[in-house]
């Protein structure tokens, strides 16, 4: 772990060092470990799903005495970024402005004892709480619950998150209502540029956008008892998410890439809460080659 942290500290984007590779030799009788430390500036969660199979494929060919041969990349990150700037000024994109304005101008009751202070609340003072659920909880959550509710797991998790915040606030500020302002993160590879193919493009495409989610009136006794309120809250959140155009990617275009709208959106509030679901990552296949390129326990991230 300490070698991994040291490799991460050696990443210096300002001088062009964006990746470090470290080989841990465990001797002749045990498999070694290959550590990749790559700055988030050049990879995202989706990128690893491209890189790891490519590494496995390339090494397989090298081990067989052949030259690595990978599938071609469709649209480059540079081309995508250029096209997004053009898309940000499109009249259809400007029609989204009232949506984002409304999301950020409604009430957002303060969560802590005081508002966030940009001078005090910085990266160095941040703290992290990590909770890990056991398989007997995550198994049914990822399979049985979505099947029973006819929903995607992301909708289930986000509805639960929204209701949890609404419940917490109801015990402290019962007159504030149940709407929750959340900053969402998405993969950012939405099909908004005609002809673009990002299926094999590595880079940081992540998009963020605000959404105001309201699970509706909540009968707490019925909800905690697993009654109809559970489904109605999920249906409400799911419907509100479905109304977002193009997975929310338009917000970032108007906030950062459109000269006419960036200042207005920059002046609005910043959500206090965030939500990001990366999806399910396979732990590796059953064949030896797949296992060789599987992230070892405790080393991924």
UniProtKB/TrEMBL annotation:
Signal peptide: none
Ranges that cross the membrane: none
GO biological process, one term: lipid biosynthetic process
Domain Condensation, residue spans: 15-287
Source organism superkingdom: Bacteria
GO molecular function, one term: catalytic activity
InterPro entries xref list: CAT-like_dom_sf, Condensation_dom
Pfam families in UniProt: Condensation (PF00668)
Protein name: Non-ribosomal peptide synthetase
Organism: Streptomyces sp. SID7499
